[in-house]
Amino acid sequence: MAKVVMYCTEVCPYCVNAERLLKNKGVTEIEKIRIDLQPEQRALMEARTKRRTVPQIFIDDLHIGGFDDLSALDRAGGLMPLLNK
User: Fold this and answer.
1) Side-chain half-sphere CA neighbours of 85 within 13 A
2) Residue 13 CB contacts under 8 Å (≥ 6 apart), including other chains
3) Structural domains of the chain, count
4) Per-residue model confidence as pLDDT tens digits over 34-49
5) What is the CATH number of the domain that holds 17?
6) How far, in Å, CA of 21 to CA of 15, rounded?
7) CA distances, 53 to each of 12, 33, 39, 69 (Å)
8) 3-state secondary structure 7-71
9) Is 7 within 8 Å of 31 (Cβ atoms)?
10) What mean pLDDT comes out for the span 74-78?
11) What range defines the domain where residue 58 resides?
């Protein structure tokens, strides 16, 4: 299974939905980077993604985007091939 990293905050319904979708696809480990607890990580996230909102999801260093992007990738059939690399 691919490595999944998610920038998130504690109170974020989109983060919860992203985690639920990933777990439903068989992901057992998600490295969560809490930008509300580690403010220095917010700047790193913004530099890495060019986005300011959470979640920001990476699968094996490939930036997927936020929950809407993840969900669209799943509907298009592209999520499982990335997760099963």
Assistant:
1) 11
2) none
3) 1
4) 999 999 999 999 999 9
5) 3.40.30.10
6) 10
7) 10, 13, 13, 12
8) EECCCCHHHHHHHHHHHHCCCCCCEEEECCCCHHHHHHHHHHHCCCCCCEEEECCEEEECHHHHH
9) no
10) 98
11) 4-83
